[in-house]
User: Which sequence fits this backbone?
C-alpha cells in the first residue's frame, strides 16, 4: 500500500504494458467477432471503454460500502446498467452501427476486461486512479481492435474505413472476414507483440549485466560453462 | 447479521439506482428507436416499390405486409416481408409485387447470415435484378447456370445454389400466403 505509482504511469500502462488484449489476454470473444472492419473495431472499443470507465469509477466510489460476499453481483449490476445505456444510445443514435455489432454490445456485460479491472483495480484504488486505469485499458483495447479490424478490412474487402484502397486486381481474401481470419490475424499480432517484449527484456538484461559486472568476469563465466 | 443487512441494503440500493437511471435513458431513447425502425422499413418499401409515395399496413395475415400507393393515391402494389431458412441462418426478404400479384416489382434482402463472399452474393445487384418483372402468376422457380430460365424462373448463383434456392423458396411461400389473403378478399 505504501508504494505509490505515478498517475501518468497508471494511465499509460494499460495501453501497452498491461494491454488487455496483448498482455492480459482478456476479452477475446468480441475482439475476434466484430473486427471485420476498422470502423466496427473502433465502435466496439469505444463502447467497451465507455462501460469500463464508468463502471470502474462507480465501483471505486462505492468500494468501501460493498460487502465482500456480494461484490461480484454488485459489479455486474453496475456494469449491466452502463451496457444497457450504451446499447440504447447506439440503437437510438447510430442504428447502422448497432446493427452491424449485433448482440456483441449487450455481451459487453460479460466482457472479462471490465470485470477484471473492477476486481483487480477499481475495488482497491481511489476513483481518480481507477478512472485513469480504465481510460488506459480502454485505449489499449481501441489500439488492438483498430489494427485488427484494419488488417482484416484491407485484406478481406480491399477497403479501409469504407474507402477502397487496393486495386480491383487484388482478389479479396474471404478468409479474413470469416472467423478463421480473426484467429490467424490475432495470433500473428500476439506473436509479434510477444517477440518484441521478449527482445526488449533480453536487451535490458544484457545492458544490466554489462553495467554491473566487469567484462572479465562475464567472460570467465562463459568459459566456465555450466559448472 | 450485520453483514446480511449490509448486503441487502447495498444490493437493493444499487438495483434501485440502476433501475431508475435505465428508466430515464430508455424513455429518452425509445421514441428514437421506434423512428429508426420505421425509417428502415420505409426505406425498404420504397426500394421494392420505387414509385410508391405512401403506404398502409395490412393487418390481416401472420406476416408484415403493406399496401403501397402511388402519386394519386392509387394502389400500385404490395410490399411484404417474409422470412425463412437460408444456408446458415434466417433470411428476411422484403418483396414488392404488382396489385394483381402477376409480377414481382423488386426484392430487397433485409437480413441474412450467409457465407461471406459466396452466399452473400444474393444481396448484390446482379442477383436481385433477376427478380424484377418475374412472372409470379403461378409459383416461381430456379435453374442452374447454363440452363435457359422460363419467365417465372431465375438463374441460381454458382457456388451459392442453396442460398439462391432459399431466396426463391422464401419468396414463393410468401407469395402463396399473400395470394390466399387476396383470394379471401382480405387485402
Assistant:
Amino acid at each position: 500500500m505504501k508504494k505509490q505509482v505515478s498517475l501518468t504511469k497508471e494511465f499509460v500502462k494499460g495501453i501497452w504494458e498491461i494491454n488487455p488484449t496483448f498482455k492480459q489476454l482478456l476479452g477475446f470473444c468480441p475482439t475476434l467477432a466484430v473486427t471485420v472492419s476498422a470502423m466496427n473495431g473502433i465502435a466496439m472499443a469505444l463502447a467497451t471503454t465507455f462501460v469500463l470507465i464508468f463502471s470502474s469509477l462507480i465501483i471505486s466510489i462505492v468500494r468501501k460500502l460493498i460487502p465482500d460476499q456480494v461484490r461480484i453481483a454488485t459489479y455486474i449490476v453496475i456494469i449491466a446498467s452502463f451496457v444497457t445505456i450504451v446499447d440504447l444510445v447506439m440503437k437510438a443514435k447510430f442504428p447502422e452501427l448497432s446493427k452491424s455489432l449485433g448482440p456483441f454490445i449487450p455481451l459487453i456485460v460479460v466482457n472479462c476486461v471490465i470485470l477484471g479491472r473492477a476486481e483487480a483495480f477499481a475495488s482497491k484504488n481511489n476513483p481518480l486512479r481507477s478512472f485513469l486505469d480504465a481510460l488506459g485499458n480502454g485505449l489499449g483495447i481501441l489500439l488492438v481492435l483498430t489494427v485488427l479490424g484494419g488488417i482484416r478490412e484491407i485484406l478481406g474487402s480491399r477497403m479501409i474505413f469504407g474507402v477502397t484502397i487496393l486495386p480491383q486486381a487484388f482478389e479479396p481474401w474471404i478468409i479474413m472476414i470469416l472467423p478463421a481470419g480473426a484467429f490467424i490475424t490475432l495470433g500473428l499480432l500476439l506473436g509479434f507483440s510477444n517477440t518484441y517484449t521478449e527482445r526488449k527484456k533480453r536487451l535490458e538484461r544484457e545492458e544490466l549485466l554489462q553495467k554491473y559486472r566487469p567484462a572479465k568476469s562475464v567472460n570467465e563465466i562463459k568459459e566456465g560453462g555450466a559448472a | 447479521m450485520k453483514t446480511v443487512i449490509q448486503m441487502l441494503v447495498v444490493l437493493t440500493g444499487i438495483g434501485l439506482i440502476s433501475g431508475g437511471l435505465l428508466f430515464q435513458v430508455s424513455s429518452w431513447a425509445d421514441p428514437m428507436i421506434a423512428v429508426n425502425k420505421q425509417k428502415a422499413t420505409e426505406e425498404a418499401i420504397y426500394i421494392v416499390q420505387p414509385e410508391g409515395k405512401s403506404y398502409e399496413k395490412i393487418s390481416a395475415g401472420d406476416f408484415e405486409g403493406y399496401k403501397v400507393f402511388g402519386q394519386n393515391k392509387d394502389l400500385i402494389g404490395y410490399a411484404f416481408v417474409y422470412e425463412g431458412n437460408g444456408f446458415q441462418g434466417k433470411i428476411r426478404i422484403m418483396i414488392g409485387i404488382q396489385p394483381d400479384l402477376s409480377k414481382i416489382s423488386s426484392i430487397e434482402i433485409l437480413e441474412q447470415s450467409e457465407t461471406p463472399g459466396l452466399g452473400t452474393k444474393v444481396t448484390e445487384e446482379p442477383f436481385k435484378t433477376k427478380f424484377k418483372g418475374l412472372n409470379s402468376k403461378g409459383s416461381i422457380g430456379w435453374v442452374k447456370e447454363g440452363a435457359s430460365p422460363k419467365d417465372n424462373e431465375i438463374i441460381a448463383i454458382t457456388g451459392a445454389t442453396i442460398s439462391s434456392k432459399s431466396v426463391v423458396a422464401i419468396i414463393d411461400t410468401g407469395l402463396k400466403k399473400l395470394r390466399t389473403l387476396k383470394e379471401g378478399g382480405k387485402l
